[in-house]
Amino acid sequence: MADEIRPVMSRRDMFSLIGALAGSAVMYEAMSSLAYAGEAGYAGPPKLSGDVKGATVLILGSGLAGMTSAYELRKAGYKVKILEYQDRPGGRNWSLHGGDTYTELGGFTQHVAFDKGLYLNPGPWRIPYHHQGILHYCKLLNVPLEPFVQSNYNAYVHSTKAFGGKPQRFRHVQADYQGYVAELLAKSTRQTALDQAVTKEDQEILLQSLRSWGALDKNYEYKLGEASSERRGYESDPGGGLTSVPTPSQPIGLQDLLHSGLWRSIGAGSGYETQQSLFQPVGGMGAIGKAFGAELKGVIQYNAKVTDIRQDAHGVTVTYHDTKTGGAPRQATADWCICTIPASVLSQIPITVGAPMKAAIDNLSYGASAKVGLQFKRRFWEEDDNIYGGITYTDQPNSLLGYPNHGYFGGGKGVILGAYTFGPAAYAFSSLSPQERIEKSLEYGANIHPQYRREFDTGASVAWHRVPWTLGCAGSWTEALRARHYDDLCALDGRIMLAGEHASRIPAWQEGAVLSALDAIRRLHQRVLAG
Amino acid sequence: MADEIRPVMSRRDMFSLIGALAGSAVMYEAMSSLAYAGEAGYAGPPKLSGDVKGATVLILGSGLAGMTSAYELRKAGYKVKILEYQDRPGGRNWSLHGGDTYTELGGFTQHVAFDKGLYLNPGPWRIPYHHQGILHYCKLLNVPLEPFVQSNYNAYVHSTKAFGGKPQRFRHVQADYQGYVAELLAKSTRQTALDQAVTKEDQEILLQSLRSWGALDKNYEYKLGEASSERRGYESDPGGGLTSVPTPSQPIGLQDLLHSGLWRSIGAGSGYETQQSLFQPVGGMGAIGKAFGAELKGVIQYNAKVTDIRQDAHGVTVTYHDTKTGGAPRQATADWCICTIPASVLSQIPITVGAPMKAAIDNLSYGASAKVGLQFKRRFWEEDDNIYGGITYTDQPNSLLGYPNHGYFGGGKGVILGAYTFGPAAYAFSSLSPQERIEKSLEYGANIHPQYRREFDTGASVAWHRVPWTLGCAGSWTEALRARHYDDLCALDGRIMLAGEHASRIPAWQEGAVLSALDAIRRLHQRVLAG
């Protein structure tokens, strides 16, 4: 049966082999010839065939990694059980709705008062099209998905230090930057500055392409006119009947544009993880965790706070407290353990693993990040600004405004992601009370949308360093840390295997948690069959 | 009451005035200071106040222009009636569903056999965020909208003459083109070729921006590595656990890229009319026409074929045939007439208007265009290719493949827009039978998706030159034609006013029809009040 779980030659290995044997030209040809197939290489969950002879697996944590592990192992014949600290499944896959209560470290308790159907995703909020692992489970669990909008050309990019602090439309900065780049390169090309880099014939094609791509005029200039307005929009749009002659819009000057720094804010839509198409579950990201939890009803024991993890040659023993009913510490035992507790928390729990894994756990720090959701009485971003979904970027500490990607044109209230902080700003936000975080978010947001104060209704926030069950948002790997500790973190240590986004190369993404789990159970199963 | 309908000074006029009085710097400042307000300038339907004294308006055609006119005029107190040639409202706002029957000129009848919930939009299929006129009526009529995806980075761009005819991922061509442009401009900048165009200080900022925007490495080169793969995607994606090291993907060579011509296919997502966000009605574009028709129940007389339009000093008399019940020609009379019959058809109907309007009607030609919808048994583009919505472009006559922007991940069947032809290709498609159009679409599409033949189920097509009630898809204005005839087409000729997309500067878009109608009724109302 072992052949069933032998990894087939990966595409990567095959190409390397072809490259070594036949040279890079043939390798490239081979790669091209496979262009029909998806590159992502996600081939579905591993097939865990073979007799597992009643083996038991104790899984710590019912986040996506824990539940993925439990689901697949149960299917393969293992007896599985999950111990979960919280009273709900999902972990960081989580949405805050009206009626929810959340208490953070420091003691602040928030009673979320969003209207029905509105929510904040404190953690993950989008799923790229190539994250086929998490998408697989969305399909399997019948979690309906809807498009997530990253780039909205009518949203704003904003710098307090440019244009008198007035927000600019994304489309203006995007079109103007692209236009000037095209104009300057066309100029260089025509001045023969590129004769060594590009053949004369190719220069002609390049010029032709720059004109169409950059919206240049017949003189290869990017300037006020129909071509540029057909990208950045008109000052006054073409219309109907007799009052309809359009007025082109004036591009921002090149120098103003460069000095504004706003070109930093136009790239997300072309990044691999944030390019179209992206998705979000209908009703909030937490829908995935809920569906997974329902599927695993009876497998998950909630309110179980793990305080000790031990293994010997025969099995694993985990000590935990029932935080709801109280009483004496209890113990759960199993042949194997998959531990998805974040390293930030796990480093504080006694665990009998070898020094390399322990060092990996202890050395991985967790990022700070905070999110603030602001409910407004009116969807003024749609009604006044014609912004339907997507993101406005700002150089203020709140970093961005995420408009809701659902309920378009429906009128009524809406929840904006009013802050998504990183780095030093995240520490600053974490030091504030939930109420102060909302106040700060309103202050920053009002510099972009003057309607903010008048329309504000209620808010909620999560600062991840204060979340009792993660103490941070995600594993914060550096290249050096990874080189030293990553393999040790992921190795099977006796009878214990770790899994989670931190045990992946896609940290902070749900896909990392899922793929980490799939790799962990594949290797665990291999070990079990090996006896 | 006349002051209520006096047009306020337009933003355009105001800026021109400021420019003339104070110079362009101040004008630009004034424009910037208004940046908070929407630029589109759509201020809602005109307020038609005043006593219309029972005036009657006969409207010809229940497309969007006709129904917009009827809705607003009725609200203002006019007695309105619409004569419609077809047995349904909407005109080119139209979706073909299973069970529909459509007979084109030449006699071909199609019995559409799409599954429930699947459809082809033969005409308009997307609504840009700034088309606030049509969006206004969607809101008013409670037509739910969902995102339309234009650019999908994982869809294909395809040329039969490049890469051995193999389709390339949009993200590869997009990232590589942008990367090389950035690299070449960085090279020119560092070679001081741009010293006259960009100051030394700005060159530093330009280089910094090119590196981040173009995904260049530390030497300002666009090449195989993490930076470029974070745009174009990896050969093998980063993953979880121990089998997770990513392999970067190999960019296409600059020369191959330029010669492929595929850079022509990456621009749509940045165009003003096709940039994010865009929308489509849930269930097909025809939902708008249906909702409008329901709202105007009793106002629209269907199956009325207009054969003569006459006016004199006292009113308008229209002769029509009831194509359903037959019998003698009938007549309808009114004080005023808004005629939305396409000029292509109207030029063949006797009408008493002055020579200038008649010349305008007779000189406007209508574009050819054909669309083919192909239902497949399986959504292989999602399941095999990870393409969720959006468009694949090809240099074949079918021009593009539009993937359905609804029912993602739902499995089951789906309808691809298998051809959307323009120009000579549209004439070629129009000359074919519906069955032959489907066959051609399958032939072209199979060069991109080998699954096409095996998965094909059923299809439908509309070639607009063969549509009995439009004889073309939209008014085909040239600059010269517009200069000579446009104002005459839109003028109030006695008691007759034309409206429709052809009477706008946004031809072929529904917004043109709506804004044309709003301008027409505003001017008609002005005339009525003037007595």
Describe the protein's architecture and organization.
- 2 copies of one chain form a homodimer.
- With 531 residues, chain A is α/β, with parallel strands linked by helices.
- In chain A, 34% of the residues lie in helices and 18% in strands.
- The relative contact order of chain A is 0.16.
- Residues 1-19 and 23-40 of chain A have low confidence and may be disordered.
- The interface between A and B is large, with 132 and 132 residues.
Give keywords:
22 strands, 531 residues, homodimer, Polyamine Oxidase, Chain A, domain 2, FAD/NAD(P)-binding domain, disordered N terminus, alpha/beta
Number of strands of chain A: 22
Structural class of chain A: alpha/beta
CATH topology grouping of the largest domain in chain A = FAD/NAD(P)-binding domain
Give the helix tally of chain A. Answer: 18
CATH superfamily of the largest domain in chain A: FAD/NAD(P)-binding domain
Strand content of chain A: 15-25%
What composes the largest sheet of chain A?
5 strands, parallel
Residue-averaged pLDDT of chain A, rounded? Answer: 93
Under the CATH scheme, which class of the largest domain in chain A? Answer: Alpha Beta
**If strands are numbered along the chain, what order do they take across the biggest sheet of chain A?**
12-2-1-16-22
- In percent, how helical is the residue content of chain A? 25-40%
Shape of chain A: globular
Distance between the termini of chain A: 13 Å
- What is the number of independent domains of chain A? 4
Radius of gyration of chain A: 27 Å
